[in-house]
Amino acid sequence: MSAFDELMAFQRETQALGQIAGRLGWDQETMMPRGAAPQRGEEMAAMEAVLHARRSDPRVAEWLEQAVAPNEAGEAQLREIRRSYERTVKVPADLAKKIAQVTSVAQGQWAAARADEDVAAFVPVLEEVVALKREEGLALAAGGDVYDAMVEDYEHGMTGAAIAEIFDAMRPGLVELRAKVLAKPAPKGLTGTFDEAAQMKLTRKLAKQFGYDMSHGRVDKAVHPFCSGAGLDVRITTRTSETDPFNCFYSTIHEVGHAAYEQNISRDYLLTPLGRGVSMGVHESQSRIYENQIGRSRAFTGWLFGEMKDAFGDFGVADADAFYAAVNAVHKGYIRTEADELQYNLHIMMRFGLERALMSGDLAVKDLEAAWNDRFEADFGYAVDKPSNGCLQDVHWSVGLFGYFPTYTLGNVYAGCLYQALRRDVPGLDAELADGSTEGATSWLKENLQQHGGLRSPRDTIVHASGMEPSHAPLLAYLEEKFSLLYDL
């Protein structure tokens, strides 16, 4: 067996173990008894110790030195294995294990603090998470910027400074457009209550409409919707609200975007470094284009209006045009995951600034709530009313995902580029969507982006699929056109 083949066999086992660890995380979010959290922390730490040992195994360095790639995909495999190995060996095994243990426990403490509206109960464990992640960042940065080292985990090739430049270019246009829209009368919303079982029935139909393969997946409920897994086992979660079915439906479509990416990657890459989404920004481009440009389009909402009428009867919206306006209503609110398409990125920009300050040491965890509340009121014009609508609303920091938040807006930027190319290449798109078919859109995305997995860098993935350099301009043009028409600006 060649060095390349030995390395790839070793990697398949490592990837398989990583999927098992991910399944533990899925179980923790969906079905695990609450009292099992301390034991699950030990289990996650044990898995992380095994994974860290494999990822930093000296044999990997030897195989990398000797391996000869048989083709372009093989060269990409070696590139990704080398990048992972070089990062892993910089982090001491004890530190990796400690982070896994503490973040597993912190996740449960975050959920309890959020339910109790008690920031003080969460501060001590978040301080521990931040300290551990800064220690990891210092090890990874090797004298460079700690936050850049964090971002590299989720969007390699991107830096905090580059992200700030993109965000600074976007923000004035978003703020100006939002001000114009909020000065207009709000569209009429839905009325009545919506049965949970009926929501879940329709949400599973929506998942299938967007190409989610239920023979290799499942839909469950969780506090925070997410997608988990890769290859042949990709699971999603959603949530329901008896007064807001859009929360359920669009959370589902969003997570199906993530899941479809994972399910559609070439089987040739199964359980290899290329057999997963190349970055979180590119991943988010799939969930956002599914949810927004496709799922919230005038064409598709016309079909969804009929489906909801069949499922729920009269819910206070007269016709498909009024329904389209309701789906895309710009409204005041606190929750990132419930934010309208126009204001969503402002939520991300706020979190980006706060977590960058936490990692640099400019912001202490004990001051996070006040900093959040001050920044929110400055950006959105009204005060946070309770912690679950403020700094306790997201799970990310409790599990150590620093550097993750900006990839949400990078995903929107990428989605803007992809949608421009999609409309160019699929001229009959609106007619298909009006019939409830997403086949033209999802097939285009599979062919041009999803099937390639991690073959190319994040930037090159977008360039290959869209034919253009990543830029915020298409996204801003799309938002300007859409909401100017919706609100008669």
From TrEMBL:
Catalytic reaction annotation: Release of a C-terminal amino acid with broad specificity, except for -Pro
Annotated GO MF terms: carboxypeptidase activity
Family matches, as InterPro entries: Peptidase_M32_Taq
Top-rank EC class of the record's enzyme: hydrolase
Alphabetized UniProt keyword annotations: Carboxypeptidase, Hydrolase, Metal-binding, Metalloprotease, Protease
Signal peptide: none
Domain of life (superkingdom): Bacteria
EC number per UniProt: 3.4.17.19
Family: Belongs to the peptidase M32 family.
Role summary: Broad specificity carboxypetidase that releases amino acids sequentially from the C-terminus, including neutral, aromatic, polar and basic residues.
Identification of the protein by name: Metal-dependent carboxypeptidase
Organism: Leisingera daeponensis
